[in-house]
Amino acid sequence: MYNGVMRVLGIESSCDETAASVVVDGRRIESNVVASQIDLHRKYGGVMPEVASRAHLKAILPTIQEAMEQAGSEWADISAIAVTRGPGLAGSLLVGVNAAKAISFARGIPLVGVNHMEGHVYSNWVLTDGDLPEPAFPLVILIVSGGHTDLILMTDHGVYRPLGGTRDDAAGEAFDKVARIIGVGYPGGPAIQRAAQGGDPKAFPFPRAWMGDSYDFSFSGLKTAVLRTADALGGNLPIADLAASFQEAVVDVLSAKLARAAEQFRVRQVAVCGGVAANLALRERVKERVTVPVHVPPIYLCTDNAAMIASAGYYRFRAGHRDGLDLDVIPSLSLT
Cβ(43)–Cβ(115) under 8 Å? Predict the structure, then answer.
C-alpha cells in the first residue's frame, strides 16, 4: 500500500471552508483543494452555522474527488484518512467526519481524527516544493485565528504545554468585529489590513491588555475602545488611522508576548499560524522581535485547509493513533 511513502488524505470542514488534500510523509503537498464559503456569509458579516453546514454537504464529495485527481492518486495509494474532529461548528464538523468514516469503511483505510488547532501548528512544515527544515524542539507556537489566540510550548510531536490563551475575544474575532464597527467589510482580517495602508498606527492610543506577566490575551477592551472612538467621531471616520491604530495594538501585544515566551523558555524556534498569521504587520513584527528562527506558513496555508490536517494526521498515524467508526466530533476540543 505505501510504495515507500505514506500518503494521507486530509479532510477539513470545521467552519466555512470545505477542504481536501493529499500529503506525502506529512510534508509534501500533492493536492490542496479549498471550496470557500466567504461569499455566502459576507452579507451576514460572519459565519452562519446552518448555511455553512448545507454548503459543506454540497461541496464535500466533489472537493475530495478533485483532491484525489489533482494528486493523481488511487484509493490504494492512500495510507490513512485524517479528518478534523474539533474544535469548530458541530454541523460543519459532522459533514467532514461522516464523509471520512464512510470512505474508511468502504475502502478499508485507517481513520485518524485530528485537532484543528494541531493542524494549524503543522501548517508550518508542509510545502508544495522546495525544502523546509523539520521542527526543532522545544519551540513556542502562537496560534491566532478567528476563535483562538493561544501561546503553546511544543516539546515534541504531539506534546504541548499551554502557556496562555484568550480570556475573551480572540484576535481574529476582534478583527471581524472592528471591521464591522468601522465599515470595511468581511472577512475582517484582510479588510483591516487593506484599510490600514497609509494610516497612522499612532493616531489613536488604543489600550493594550498586558495583564502583568501573564501569557493570556484579551482584546475585548480594545474592541470597545474602537467602538467608543468611532461613536465619538460621528459619521466621518478616519478609516485608515482607525484600522492602523487597532492593528498596531493587536500586533504589539501578540509579538511582545511571543518574544518574551521564546526568551523565557529558551526555545530553538518560534512558529506562528492561523488565519491572523497572514497579517503582514504581524509577520514583520514577530521577525523583528524574536531572536530565534521564525516559521510562518505561506499565506494560503494560514487560513483553513486540509494539507495541515493531513500533515498532523500523518504524525498521529505514524505514532500508532487510530480511530474507529465511532469517531465523533468535539466542537470544543482542546489541544492540551
Answer: no
